[in-house]
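User: Earlier you gave me the apo prediction for this protein. Now I'd like the version with zinc ion bound, so I can compare the two side by side. Same sequence as before, with the ligand SMILES added.
Assistant: Got it. Here's the input I'm using:
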Amino acid sequence: MQNETTLKFIDPHIHMTSRTTDDYEAMRKAGIVAIIEPAFWLGQPRTEVGSFKDYFSSLVGWERFRSKQFGIKHYCTIGLNSKEANNERLAEEVMNLLPRYVMKEGVVAIGEIGYDDQTKAEDKYFRLQIELAKEAKLPIMVHTPHRDKKRGTTRSMDVLEEMNANPKMCVIDHNNEETVKEVLDRGYWAAFTIYPHTKMGNERMVEILKQYGPERIIVDSSADWGISDPLAVPKTASLMLQRGIPLAHIQKVCYQNALDAYGQSGQMNENDWIDSKGVDAGELYEGNSVLRGQRPDASENLTIQ
Amino acid sequence: MDKINQFLQSILTTNQVQPESLAWIEEKVEEIKRDFRPNNFFMTFSAASRFFGHQSIQLTQEQQAQMNTFDKQISIQRWKMSQVARIFLLLQIPQDDENTFVEVLRQLWDTADMEEAAALYTALPLLPFPEAFVQQTIEGLRTNIVPVFDAIALHNPYPAQYLPEAAWNQLYLKAAFMGRRIYHIVGIEKRANAQLASTISDFVHERWAAGRTVPPDMWMATPQYLNAPLLKDVKKLFKSNKAIERATAILICQESKLPAAKKILANFGNSTEIMESQETSWEIISNNWYAMYQTM
Ligand SMILES: [Zn+2]
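And here is the structure of the complex with zinc ion:
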């Protein structure tokens, strides 16, 4: 049984390409041992397939190496994001490129895929990529739209089921109070992105846990190039502790569930960061759990987007 | 090439690999022979690490003996299982057309992850059409990913054999900057040159100015090219209070064919140290230094 001083975290959705080494250092200190970096939109639309190729290569190459320098094990997901699926000429070329990456080491899912504006093109490439995930026997990370979220989330699951994807292999991300019940009822993993700024958000996550329990619930930061917090997972864990959530539940939603969901890829294993003696390899690099040294300030503002 | 093929295959079987892994690679080899398709091969090359892990290989006594019949500078004993498997697969690609072969390799490099890139560079001394990969190797040396750099620069005879002088010098210097063991670069004696020797002197001066020590194997490329500043450096080493630096100075002078070096040796060499250094070598000095100053 883990206690407060040995809590380890996985952040299963974070875009490190957009983050600094200070972030890596702080994450490591806070007890984050492994991360998943989903392929996504870089803010500036890409105009050439080569930009995608180099981006995917950096996810399985340079960023993986960079992360290792800080004692954090880096995994990624590969996919065509929903925004750029709307550039159909480019989307076709990216689809041809994806098979080159899906079998690579440390690729734990196809993602993040799904809907943004819920256009026809988005629908087409969502379906094609579900097919690809099934062929590659990989889990799927589904990005749910920020606008028209409830309907978009339901539609994502409808399409997954229509395509015979196994809900146990699918993580529906960016949930909120309005979507969580249906996602859990239909048998999917439900991930929550904790964003900074309103105090309520972090508290909302605690409330959701109290209501639904820890089964199939995953907490992530989705930190990227926008205002976001790479320590969202450990900070939320800390608040959960203060609010009396059992340690075993925190361990599930901030570590084990992500490992169970994405571990189905066969590409993510606890042995990757814990050696045979049970020592977390990253500890050799420095520090350990945030909850040991500097406790994260749980009152800091975090919110579910 | 058939011999090395069989050898790699025998390593896969003697290393207690899962029967499914062996069946998988046999099936892939058949597939490649029957109908080679680049797109399938890219997936196979990536998937290899699912069947063959990154643990180091063990050679049987028989295999060790067999190693001696190959180019001794190819350090197969240092390869990982995944590398043996991937390089074995690379050698199955049809080699009858240079353009096709080179293009497939180029595409593999283009989308390689870290372990794949390391395997590709490790394979260099065994690939057909070696001249075709010079530019790729020069490009590869620009990496800051240590395992990829090491795959090119250390225990690999390809760079010394094929890189132009400027690129080879770059490799040497960058290895020093990255804190890699110079002693593990293959072919230093053969590729040493005046330009490199004088750059080494500049490098050393910078380090000394910063109050830092210089690994003794850094000097390996200098003995035949001791210009005036380097001779001054050697004298400085002789006066060092560190025995290992004095031993380095003795070794440089002993290896040098230059009269100036012999003269310094006669003037500076403490007789007992010279006696002891009869048994010394770059290997011993390098090992001692790394044991003292670094945990590598
Ligand atoms: Zn994202």
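For your comparison, keep in mind: The longest strand of chain A covers residues 107-114.
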